[in-house]
Amino acid sequence: MSERRLGVRLGAIVGVVALLGLAAGGYYWFTRPSGLAAIPNPAVIAPGGFRASVGDDRTITIGLEIRNTANLPLTVVGAQTTAPRGLTRAAMAIIPTGPENEGFTLEGELPALTPVQLGTEPIDRNAILAARFKVDCARLAAADDAFHEQIFVTIQIGDEQRVEELTPPVVGDHPWLMATAQGACTDPLPTLPSTTTNP
Length: 199
Prior knowledge:
The protein contains three helices and eleven strands, in the order αβββββββαββββα.
């Protein structure tokens, strides 16, 4: 008889635990975060890879790798940079990786800034943030070398958006834009052959 009572009690305890588990699961299901609240902040990072090109017209073009670290797809809908004095932004683009952009270079016209979706798989979680700046060497020389360069991207999931700050790369002791711009001001530019006339 006591074994039967013990079995009934154990069954009741198991039933109560199961009900509590179901209640907790249901509570989590209905109150779990969604949208931007369900992903880390920041969800997009700059893992460190970038390319730079110095044009012969005192322009620099930067291509910075960006990556989705969230477990949900998201869309990068905008980007913005804060650059040192002496740099004027001429163009900016977000370029998805993939077969259609395997030959992408930093030369030529940059495409228009349009939203790009970043997925969660290695094949589609990365993109390139490309920016071109005109360099005024006189103003750049007067700028503070320790200027705090900033890069921001605006991400979207559904109807929700937020702005995230990326960590800019560093070249030696200099932030990336300053280092690349200094190259535009120290490298000699091509000049036309000079002509002389005899008096």
